[in-house]
Design goal:
Elements (H helix, E strand, L loop, with lengths): L1 H21 L8 H13 L2 E2 L32 E3 L6 E5 L5 E2 L16 E3 L22 E3 L6 E3 L12 E3 L4 E3 L2 H10 L5 E3 L23 E3 L6 E3 L12 E3 L5 E4 L13 E3 L4 E5 L12 E3 L4 E5 L12 E3 L4 E5 L12 E3 L4 E4 L13 E3 L4 E4 L13 E3 L4 E2 L14 E3 L21 E3 L6 E3 L12 E3 L4 E6 L1 H6 L5 E3 L4 E4 L14 E3 L20 E3 L6 E3 L14 E3 L4 E4 L2 E2 L6 E3 L6 E2 L3 E2 L6 E3 L4 E5 L12 E3 L4 E4 L4 H4 L5 E3 L4 E2 L15 E3 L6 E2 L13 E3 L4 E4 L13 E3 L4 E5 L14 E3 L4 E5 L2 H4 L3 H4 L20 E5 L2 E5 L8 E3 L4 E4 L13 E3 L4 E4 L13 E3 L4 E4 L13 E3 L4 E5 L19 E3 L19 H11 L4 H25 L3 H21 L8
Parallel strand pairs: 3-5, 5-6, 6-8, 7-9, 8-10, 10-11, 11-13, 12-14, 13-15, 14-16, 15-17, 16-18, 17-19, 18-20, 19-21, 20-22, 21-23, 22-24, 23-25, 24-26, 25-27, 27-28, 28-30, 29-31, 30-32, 31-33, 32-34, 34-35, 35-37, 36-38, 37-40, 39-42, 40-43, 41-44, 43-45, 44-46, 45-47, 46-48, 47-49, 49-51, ...
Antiparallel strand pairs: 1-4, 2-3, 57-58
Organism: Quercus rubra
Protein name: Leucine-rich repeat-containing N-terminal plant-type domain-containing protein
Subcellular location: Cell membrane
């Protein structure tokens, strides 16, 4: 039977080809031959529902050709339309028909020369090229090949379809080049609709190439086409244009015309995710037919014109994520047909109107991330059609009103405002609510019990308020759909009811940080599928309960128990953990047993852990951050840690590790931070450290490492912090052996070693990052990542200080306590971004170079305990930020400069310089009594402030009181626990970062 069928189609093909070769151009196929051509076309394609499973088919797809029968007239087949008089096939609609397979260039479909409409959209032709044979459909007016798996270049022959009215080649993997584009625009004079979404048009200039568009164009869709350059503004003025979609072309620039719009026809305008800029012109209000306006994620500025209230037909209005400013136009709230309003991510100010006359059809309202203020008007809680309401990240005040008719609401976000009062009990009327976020406000009181009626609730975030929350089992037993719960930074009351007669199978994320909890909540036992658990910053003491291992036994992947008073964790049994944080507890003994197979982030710093670093760490092939600092670990550094190609942060500082640094750093490693400060590591630095091409922070201070200066580290271009202080390094630093060593170095500390010889002026020459003063930076920026903050111990202004976070602008050099000789090089004066410079306790001679006066950002300068001579350069008096100056124990002579900052330094700055004279010393200059200098600007300001009752003396007194207060508070925190208001202030930002980390965590492999 199969052989007969194959022979049958083979005979049919021969007859068709013979007929076609005899009458190649002018002949018409008979009705039977047309049917045979369609059957043969269908025979070489298979039916596969997956081929039509994607957009835009959905559930509407079905195999139309499956019903085609040879014994029936093809004019009756599904998808086939024939001319009533000639019986020619004039239309073929096989949209979403499950067709799968290659589309050959000699398909028998091309024999149907009378086709006027061909729609093959929503199939999968498996990467086939668009055949040049399509150009022979001279009668074709409508061609749709969208969403059909075609690839390659759009053939030149498409431009020969002179009768085309509509052409849709969108959402394939196609490329159109300039010559073909110009022919399509120039030759297809009847074309009214052109849809090329997702076609590569990167080689086409969008300005000049658009000039030949027909004035009859109604639809132009060039969405996500890689267009770049300036778009021709005249396209907006095409008189018949109804749909213009240029969205998702990030390199496309332009502005909107200020006059002569196609005001009578335009219905849809989409420029979202382009680089269009300028103001929204007032004439936008003249587009009376406009139904959809999508301008999100562009660079528009200025005020939103009040004329936008004239767009009475508008349904979708999205101006989000631009830089619109000024007052929110009240007319926008009176649009009668508005369904979607998105204004988030702008700089809009002012209150919402007290009354509105439109918005009866509003479904989505988002005003988040602006500067809106005032109270929440009552009409917000009476919109009967509203589904999503997002007002987060604004400055709204007052109380949350009573919910009345918002029965359709499924998402409510009022977070990050300044709302007060209690949560209204009427919230229970939001029976369809799925997401509720009231976090980061000033809400008080108890959660209303009526919230348990929100049985569809999936996500509940009440964190960072002043709420008293009773973790009652009855509350949770009704909310069986809860997936995400965040009550952090509130006052949590845990029910002692142990009658666990239900489970919470859908609860995946539970955040109870800083909730004043003193024990593990018993209700956790019913969270059988929990994935994220955060109990950090509480008052939980002692050991973890044995039943804790049953919580999310096979699902838990995020665990944060940091900042408690835990003394023992016997075992961490969960096998899917990627994040574990045990920081700042009282853990003792060896590290708990842990399945590290999926581990990516492990924090256990600031405990009392002992023993060797556990070998299980070597099983963590995905580990990115390891922080075991501030413990009592001993033994050597595991070699597996430096062989990793994934590890980014290795923080083992302040332990008792010994031995040498492993010498097998992988050439493909991704280490960004290595901190071994405060151990007993010895021996030479391994040259394989040079393989750490991503290294930014290297802190090896306070160890027993020896050898000469590691000049070869200068080839690590990203290195920003190098600390080798308090080791046993020795010898001359010498000259660099690379072209531009240490170009990004900002912190260089080699103090307390045995270096000798002259200061390395040739190295100073290449410290580019110390020469460039950061300008125009907005806000403080810190080194590190969302999950780990780089920190450092430094000597700053004479004090040993731990920088728990390192500002990116912090720049310092410390060469103190070595045996350097010779003069200070003039080139030091080029390091203009320096905050601190310390060359003290060496054997430097000669004069202080005047170029030091160029260090205009300098805050402390320590040159004490050297053999410097000559006068103090007068230029130092012009350093505006200099707070600490130490020149004592040298051989300086002459008069001390006066004025500005120098008038604030006392005798200790100049002790044991027998040749110095002048203020503040009592030694006279030129046999005259030392005159008191005129008051400095600072002193004048102090005098003025003292008249108003507040001077610098008060500041110093306050500073001293602050030290005492800090000491007392530290003792209080040690004895009775961490006060909630302090913990909340310190932990809030970290908590937000941990949430972001959780949302963005990748569970895939770490790479090689």
């Amino acid at each position: 039977m199969g052989k007969c069928l194959s022979w049958k189609y083979f005979s049919l093909l021969l007859s068709l080809l013979f007929f076609h070769s005899q009458f190649p151009f002018s002949s018409s196929l008979s009705s039977n031959s047309q049917c045979s051509a369609l059957l043969h076309f269908n025979h070489y394609l298979s039916l596969n529902s997956y081929a039509s499973s994607h957009f835009p088919c959905g559930s509407n797809s079905y195999p139309k050709t499956g019903s085609w029968k040879e014994d029936k007239d093809c004019c009756t087949w599904d998808g086939v339309v024939c001319d009533n008089s000639t019986r020619h096939v004039i239309a073929l609609d096989l949209t979403c028909s499950w067709l799968y397979g290659s589309f050959p260039s000699n398909s028998t479909l091309f024999l149907l020369r009378h086709l006027r409409s061909l729609n093959l959209a929503g199939n999968d032709f498996d990467g086939s090229l668009i055949s040049p044979e399509f150009g022979k459909f001279q009668s074709l007016t409508h061609l749709n090949l969208s969403h059909s798996g075609f690839t390659g270049e759009i053939p030149y022959e498409i431009s020969q379809l002179s009768s085309l009215v509509s052409l849709d080649l969108s959402y394939n993997d196609l490329l159109i080049k300039t010559p073909v584009w110009k022919r399509v625009i120039g030759n297809l004079t009847q074309l009214r609709e052109l849809v090329l979404d997702w076609t590569d048009m990167s080689s086409i200039t969008p300005n000049s190439s658009m000039m030949n568009l027909s004035s009859s164009f109604t639809t132009l869709r060039l969405r996500e086409c890689h267009l770049q350059g300036t778009f021709d503004i005249n396209v907006f003025r095409l008189p018949c244009i109804q749909t213009l979609d240029l969205g998702f072309n990030s390199g496309l620039e332009g502005s909107l015309p200020k006059s002569n719009w196609s005001s009578n026809s335009l219905k849809l305008l989409s420029l979202q995710y382009t680089n269009f800029s300028g103001e929204l012109p007032d004439c936008i209000g003249s587009l009376k037919s406009l139904e959809s306006l999508f301008l999100s994620n562009c660079n528009f500025t200025g005020a939103i014109p009040t004329s936008i209230g004239n767009l009475t037909q508008i349904i979708h209005l999205d101006l989000s994520n631009n830089r619109f400013s000024g007052l929110l136009p009240l007319s926008i709230f009176d649009l009668p047909n508005l369904s979607i309003l998105g204004l988030e991510g702008n700089q809009l100010v002012g209150p919402l109107p007290n009354h509105v006359s439109g918005l009866n059809l509003l479904i989505h309202l988002s005003l988040s991330s602006n500067f809106l203020n005032g109270t929440l008007p009552s009409w917000l809680f009476s919109l009967t059609s509203l589904v999503t309401l997002s007002l987060d990240h604004n400055q709204f005040i007052g109380e949350i009103g009573e919910f009345k008719y918002n029965h359709s609401l499924y998402s409510l976000d009022l977070s990050y405002n300044m709302l007060q009062g209690s949560i209204p009990s009427s919230i229970s009327r939001l029976v369809n609510l799925i997401t509720l976020d009231l976090s980061s406000n000033n809400l008080q009181g108890f959660i209303p019990s009526s919230i348990s009626r929100l049985v569809n609730l999936n996500s509940l975030d009440l964190s960072s308020n002043n709420l008293s929350i009773m973790l009652d089992l009855e509350l949770f037993s009704n909310l069986n759909n809860l997936n995400f719960v965040n009550f952090s930074y509130n006052n949590l009351l845990v029910s002692i009811n142990n009658n666990l007669t239900f489970t919470l199978p859908n609860l995946r994320s539970l955040y109870l940080s800083s909730c004043n909890i003193s024990e593990f909540p018993i209700f956790l036992k019913v969270a059988t599928n929990l994935m994220s658990l955060d109990l950090s910053n509480n008052r939980i003491h002692g050991q973890t309960p044995k039943w804790l291992g049953t919580v999310g036994r096979n699902s838990l992947d995020f665990l944060d128990l940091s900042h408690n008073f835990l003394t023992s964790i016997d075992k961490i049994p969960w096998k899917n953990l990627y994040f574990v944080d045990l920081r700042n507890n009282l853990l003792q003994g060896t590290f708990p047993t842990l399945n590290a197979r999926n581990l990516q982030y492990l924090f256990a710093s600031n405990n009392n852990l002992t023993g060797e670093i556990p070998s299980l760490i070597c099983n963590a092939s995905f580990l990115e951050v390891l922080d075991l600092s501030h413990n009592n670990f001993s033994g050597t550094i595991p070699k597996c840690l430096v062989r990793s190609n994934v590890l980014s942060v290795l923080d083992l500082r302040m332990n008792s590790l010994n031995g040498t640094i492993p010498s097998t750093f992988s050439k493909r490693n991704k280490l960004r931070n290595i901190n071994l400060n405060g151990n007993q590591v010895e021996g030479l630095l391994p040259r394989s450290l040079e393989n750490c091409r991503h290294l930014e922070v290297l802190d090896l201070g306070n160890n027993k490492i020896n050898g000469t200066f590691p000049y070869w580290l200068g080839s690590i271009l990203k290195l920003r912090v190098l600390v080798i202080r308090s080791n046993k390094f020795r010898g001359h630093i010498g000259n660099p052996n690379t072209k531009s060593p240490f170009p990004n170095l900002r912190i260089l500390d080699i103090s307390n070693n045995e270096f000798n010889g002259p200061l390395p002026k040739r190295y100073f020459k290449y410290l580019k990052a110390m020469m460039n003063v950061a300008k125009g930076e907005v806000g403080l920026k810190y080194m590190g990542d969302d999950y780990y903050n780089d920190s450092l111990n430094v000597t700053m202004k004479g004090l040993n200080i731990e920088l728990v976070r390192i500002q990116t602008v912090f720049t310092t050099i410390d060469f103190s306590n070595n045996r350097f000789i010779g003069e200070m090089p003039q080139i030091v004066g080029r390091l203009k971004s320096l905050k601190g410079l310390n060359f003290s306790h060496n054997n430097l001679t000669g004069c202080i170079p005047s170029s030091v006066g160029n260090l205009t950002n300098l805050e402390w300068l320590d040159l004490s305990f050297n053999k410097l001579s000559g006068e103090i350069p007068k230029q130092l008096a012009d350093l505006p930020w200099l707070e600490v100056l130490k020149l004592s124990h040298n051989q300086l002579t002459g008069q001390i400069p006066s004025g500005k900052q120098f008038n604030t330094f006392d005798n200790d700055s100049y002790t044991d310089n027998l040749g110095l004279c002048g203020f503040p010393l009592t030694r006279t200059c030129n046999n005259h009594e030392t005159k008191q200098p005129p008051p400095s600007t600072l002193q004048q300001e102090d005098n003025l402030e003292s008249k108003n009752g507040f001077g610098w003396q008060a500041v110093l007194i306050g500073y001293g009181c602050g030290v005492i207060f800090g000491t007392l508070m530290g003792y209080v925190m040690f004895k009775i626990g961490k006060p909630k208001w302090i913990v909340r202030m310190v932990k809030l930002e970290q908590h937000i970062l941990l949430r972001r980390l959780k949302n963005n965590a990748r569970r895939s492999g770490g790479g090689n």
